[in-house]
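Exercise 7 asks you to align residues with tokens for two separate proteins.
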Amino acid sequence: MGRRQPDAQGDPPARSVRFQADPPEGVRWPRRVSGRTRARSRNTTMTRLYNWGRTLCAHGPVLRPATPAEAANALQRHRHVTPRGAGRSFGDAAIPNRGGTMLTERLTDAQPMEFDASSGILRANAALPQHAILSNTCPEGWLLPAIPGSRYITLGGMIAADAHGKNHSQTGSIGKYTRSLRVLVADGDLVDCSPEQHPDLFWATIGGLGLTGLVVDVELQLEPLPAGRVVSELVGFGSTDELIEVVEARHRATDFVLGWADGRFSPGRPFAGAVAFGHWRPDLAPPGPLPPFRSLRLPFSNPLPGAGWMAATLLNAVLRRKFRDGRHETADVESFFFPQDRIRNWNIAFGRRGFLEVQCCFPLEHAAAALRDIHGFLCETRTLCSLVALKRFGPGLPDAPLSFPFEGYSIALDMPVRGRIPEALNELDEIIVQHGGRVNPVKDSRLPAERFEQMYPDLERWREVKRGWDPNNVWQSALSRRLHLTE
């Protein structure tokens, strides 16, 4: 494909504001620079963008194309572009390092959704959020095969993350059900790719963090929706070994598995919590239109000092009541999948310094030892987590070199940024590597590049595809620079 020459008069670099403590050795946080917000054109403005964890903020040009053609034209005017959908990445995947940020919010009307209710095949605009898709497919008896934890995440973001849900042990990630993609690549071409057509681009885009191009359209095979309600049974555990024993005994006979552990860690405190085993219940409600999803907003935008500790303590108290051994809970589709979205701006509750999430997974044979070591680390450092979530993963996607999930166990730790937490997490990285685990890059903003290379052995295969389709690194982000995926 022909390559364009970058415009010598490109936009000024975007810079990020550091809200955390000093970064660990080997990790570079971009510096804050001044700049005034001003209109540049109808589709380009200078503005500030935050990550969902509110630990980073970038100031720079923002592009809002309304059609794929406008998006392609924007690539001719900008040396470097970061794609951004709903902005729900906890880390720096949708934060620019330099150049412009391409928002997809105006692309939602570029092509209508096409859905075959007889086969469950969906072809949809990648800028659409999950809830827009579910509201059209659920009444027809079909469901997205992998549903991450926010209804506002876009379909393109799900592809870029190879998103997984509470049912990964049964169904796998979104990439398994993706039939084809249309991708806006660096030279402005729209390329159709699939496992048969341009398979290198297809698999590098699944879980590719938005760095191979802007996903414009997605064709998916949906899963049948068995019912309109899910019933969850809670089973308690008092140690890491007991957790794995409970899950291994029951996960094959259930539709969903999600564990929770108490996030208050101190020496001698056990790793205790409960696992929710969810089952579709057609006898309670058949598939049908989704009921209205009611949510509220926190009435403040600048929390008081200490808000992170207070919010984490309160959330643990609420979850201890919810995840009680022997309890049963019934929920409709969206209430089951998206409980956090009941508070639309819940991310601001954790204080001015924001929060970090570390999600990592381990192979089955190392899971028990890994979880024991992580529990020991958290107790030794007296870490307070607002949420500790556990999942059982099924087989991964070996063809997608940057896909995160593989068969084993996953633990996600949400931590308000307090004290020297970012530095202390270097020790956690060592534990993850020792046990053959990996970190989910979509939720990370601090992992050093050398650790990432240890965790993703097929990284060089992905880099070869990136060099072939984007030799000048037009598509990049703060994440790609931090992890040395682009230069």
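Second protein for Exercise 7:
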Amino acid sequence: MKTSPSIKLLVEDPIVVNPGEAITLACVTTGGEPLPTLTWVRAVGALPEKTVLKGGTLTIPAITSDDAGTYSCIANNNVGNPAKKSTNIIVRALKKGRFWITPDPYHKDDNIQIGREVKISCQVEAVPSEELTFSWFKNGRPLRSSERMVITQTDPDVSPGTTNLDIIDLKFTDFGTYTCVASLKGGGISDISIDVNISSSTGERTPATPGTLTSCARRSASSPAGRGSPL
């Protein structure tokens, strides 16, 4: 008696992997007469060129972010409707780190003053976003949220992937290099580190007048990064 196909995926959904890892998607028939044939398709675009197909198994030997997306196994035996099961591949990524300071020391009509509040914001793009964590350091030492140094891990008023460090009632003792480090909990991806220097003056600027501050920033890599510029 002819029956329509049924299948089962032998993988999790979603699948979260690091770039460069090999990934295998397996699909098996659980019913259907005559025996269904199995094929794999991608929701958007063709399968990656390096893909290896063998029966109900699809292997991507060295996955990249371009390979992310939804993959479906389809079983067909020309009886009834084909059976279809899908899984989503997520490739970890951490990129485009930037920062900004409030008030903006780079704007001629604004400045940072002793006794005022200063906010340092750090933003990155992370995949998957739920694995993103931030750490703050001052002069290389870990910072914890306190009454005068308030750390916000996610800011609902700005784009996702943003952390803030609010320095309340800025003091001269607050001068130093503040570092925001973005990481993914799953590991396997290099952290992004952004340094922001809060000081009474910088070597590249005219010395500030008493009671005001100027700021400069640099990335942890070899080349400098200006305000709001990507890493």
